Amino acid sequence: MLSPVYSLFYDDLEMADESISVSYLNPYAGNPYWPVDVAISGLFAVYFWLQHAFWGQTPGKRLYRLKVVSRTTGESPDLRQAGVRALVYPAVMLVPYAGVLINLVDTLCIFFGWKRRCLHDVIADTVVIDLSDPGRRGIGFLFGLGVVLVLTTVFLLVYVMPG
User: Membrane-spanning regions, if any (predicted)?
Assistant: First the structure.
């Protein structure tokens, strides 16, 4: 089954299936629309850059009471730090073949490495902190989990619905 977005770009759905699997490892191979992918990655980078530079949080981090701060000052990251942090993920994912592996290592660093800091945090000299009061029992986690489940369900319904 294909995402409705990819069916807009491909007339032959079999070609789209092959291109999706190939483009995951090499985003440029067989994808005549790779400039669109690069542009969308750039837009996401700008979004995360501005969110972290001005507030230190995205809406999702606010929901989970997390905040990105400079490792040295403890304040929200400056424009440079937020920009570096925002560019690492899309830059890594756009590297053919190796980008997927580097992204996997980056994600696993949350659990196993660098004091639970991802590659983008290490490079930008930032850290994600938990703002929740340990004595406070709120609905933050359960509410966030509910939001994630609802959004996942909506995505799956849209994804599997016939076009």
Answer: 33-55, 87-114, 139-160
Quote the pTM value. 0.64
Domain ranges of the chain: 33-160
* Digit-coded pLDDT (tens) for 45-91: 899 999 999 999 998 888 888 899 999 998 999 999 999 999 987 88
- The answer to whether the CB of 109 falls within 8 A of the CB of 123 is no
Beta carbons of 58 and 48 less than 8 angstroms apart: yes
Rounded Cα gap, residues 19 and 31, in angstroms: 6
d(CA 15, CA 30): 9
The residues pairing with 70 across neighbouring beta strands, listed in sequence order, are 126
146 phi, psi to nearest 5 deg: -65, -40
